[in-house]
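[INFO] parsing input record for Class I SAM-dependent methyltransferase
[DEBUG] input buffer:
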Amino acid sequence: MCLAHSKVVDEFADQAELPPFAAGLVDTINKAATAMSLSIGHRLGLFDAMRSGDAKSPAGWANSLGLQERYVAEWLGAVTTAGITYVDDLGRYSLPADHALFLGADAPAGSMSSMMQWVGVLAPVETEIVRCFEKGGGVPYSAYPRFHEVMEEEGTLTFDADATLGLVTGLVERLEQGIDVLDVGCGRGRALRIFAERFPNSRFVGYDLSCDAIATAREKAADLPNLRFEVLDCMKMRDERAFDLVFTFDAIHDQPHPETLLGNIRRAMRDDAVYIAQDIWAHTDVAANRDHPLAPFIYTISLMHCMTVSLAQGGVGLGAAWGEEKASEMLAKAGFGDVAMHRLEHDIQNAYYVCRG
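[DEBUG] output buffer:
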């Protein structure tokens, strides 16, 4: 995607005698702008509609979705010049089948356009982040529009129930028999809904600090009697030996005091319990991340969200790129004597830590 446009930029740079670094900056601003257009197309269902393979004028696509033609026309200009959609000699626009695999909410190969929504989530707090550079402190969760909504969508790309449960031999059988399960920092509860539907003999609980996220989670799980959600500051968890299985999904690194939370999780586990932590995969040392395919994204989203929301609560600001080395150190300090880190083939973004007492 966008490779054709990069070639155009290279040709322009040669003609203008721009050095490679400056040419790269031109390409960067084009791709940043394209990310915004991808997010808009995702949210409006334009990519899902264009997956039909039809070729239509801007008016045709606008009418099919009840949108304003002028806006659709300008959006098509952005994504077409970026090499994402195609326009024929009759002014009809279409989405190539190989691009459609990755675009839209129902993308067959997984929605990569959903990730582009982070641009809109993070951009509104830029001025506040600049202030934090100068004055310190942080930006609270409440400042981010659509945060839990976008996190839930991202889960459709990274969360695979079978692959996650397959990390622990015999775990599926235990869930079928009936055990107590906790998801800490559950957000809107998508993972727990999947598990609760599949394993009706087990009992599931989700904790999250966000009242809005928990309200949505409860609404979506209203027909699941084995699943409940509670609004809770997980720094204040008081459960002791209450759970056989604990999950966190991308929920440790942005806590105000991650070591406290890990200790709370350890106390909440029974003797034969398992803790599975999905969290951002990286190395702790910046130099070791220079070849990481998502390193700029990880550090930027940490700067703009993960680190600063921790600091806003008087926390340590661990950050998303805490890394497998630091994670292993902190898990051991929390009392986990057996920790194994795994990567799953479908998930380029996360590591999976399987932890026992």
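[INFO] The chain has two domains: 3-104, 126-356.
[INFO] shutting down worker
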